[in-house]
Write the structure tokens for this entry.
Amino acid sequence: MDITTLQQDAIELLKGLIGIESFSRQEDKTATLIHSFFTDRGIPAFRHKNNVWALNKYYEQNKPTILLNSHHDTVKPNPGYTLNPFEPIVKDGKLYGLGSNDAGGCIVSLIATFLHFYDRKNLKYNFIMAASAEEEVSGFDGLELIYPKLGAIDFAIVGEPTLMNIAVAEKGLMVLDCTAKGKAGHAAREEGDNAIYKAIKDIEWIQQYKFDKVSTHLGPIKMSVTIINAGTQHNVVPENCTFTIDVRLTDAYSMEEVLDTIQQ
């Protein structure tokens, strides 16, 4: 298959993906589209839940295997989106739409690469193309679910937006759901123990704390409070305040070490 055809097919597939709502855990229709993209070209494809994968035509178990992987689920569109997120629009040489960058462009490029090598004989490596689900929510029914079905993987190329720079590692993720506990009371009287004020102290610590060790490849650990909820009505001192911490880990500390530091 020539490069021009591969490029045109990739762009049309990307437009199709953009036009289908594929929020995490709801990406069944894009999985169907990708599966059909393979089978329409005579390529046997496998599907488990919303994950789709295919092997090169002359796959041999005794050869090392390269995995090409990216995800086809998306986050929900930001309220500030100025275009129809589900309408693929070409403007000034760029294709706009929800998931066009993260990670539709990546996944169709990897699929094009897979097609380029699919029916070549005497390759030194096998190729597996895996379009996985639930990446945006770190779900269990994504790549983690199908990885054991893929066989031994010796090398992987994972498609993610990196401004066209090669990345050799990524930060880990730990999500902490926290609750600051106080005591309910009436806002008009000096009573109760406001849980919001307690949470503010913890949140300020999260904002200001810096871990001593910095990873050579990944930089510093990053902690962000991303969700906060408290209170039931304006005149009641809140008894509880819940907040969520998004922690991006590096190889400088284990997850347990980071958690111990936060808990202290």
